[in-house]
Amino acid sequence: MRTRQLLIIAMVSPFLLTACATSPMGPTVQVMPSPTKPFQVFQQDQEMCKQYAQSQVAGQADAANQKAFGSAALGTLLGAGLGAAVGNHQGAGQLGAVGAIAGTSVGANSSARAQQSIQGQYNNAYTQCMYSRGNQVLGAVQRY
User: Fold this and answer.
1) Does position 136 have pLDDT exceeding 80, yes or no?
2) Rounded CA gap, 97 and 3, in Å?
3) Residue 6 confidence class, pLDDT cut points 50, 70, 90
4) Longest C-alpha distance within the chain, in Å?
5) N or C: which end of the chain has fewer CB within 10 A?
6) What is the DSSP secondary-structure string of 76-119?
């Protein structure tokens, strides 16, 4: 029985590690300085706009991770409850493990979607800030 539990933990652990959403490390959109802007001023704009964008998504990664952890925990509890209802302790353990794996995979998918959403919101805030400071955002038409 102990070996089975270790095997289950080994199977679930990679899902838990890959399921975490993180705050964006930076923008994934390209912005160029206007032709008349010195590069040092552009770099200052970048730093200010990165801070602004980070403030717009603050706390969202933690919330997504808590939701993913809740999905895994709920799957484990439901599986264990179903196994206990069947009537034996071994069934509770096995169905609990199946529930943990299923809940963790649902949580991992949820975190991946949340990560994309957080990055998109970060990129939007960053490009809005950079555009408002007169920089060239690819795909945007600037009027002077």
Assistant:
1) yes
2) 13
3) very low
4) 76
5) C
6) HHHHHHHHHHHT-HHHHHHHHHHHHHHHHHHHHHHHHHHHHHHH
CA distances from 59 to 11, 14, 24, 43 (A): 29, 24, 11, 26
C-alpha span between 3 and 16 (Å, rounded): 20
Can you give the pTM of this predicted structure? 0.60
- Summarised one tens digit per residue, pLDDT across range 20-35 is 777 778 999 999 999 9
What token pair was written down for 41? Answer: 């001023």
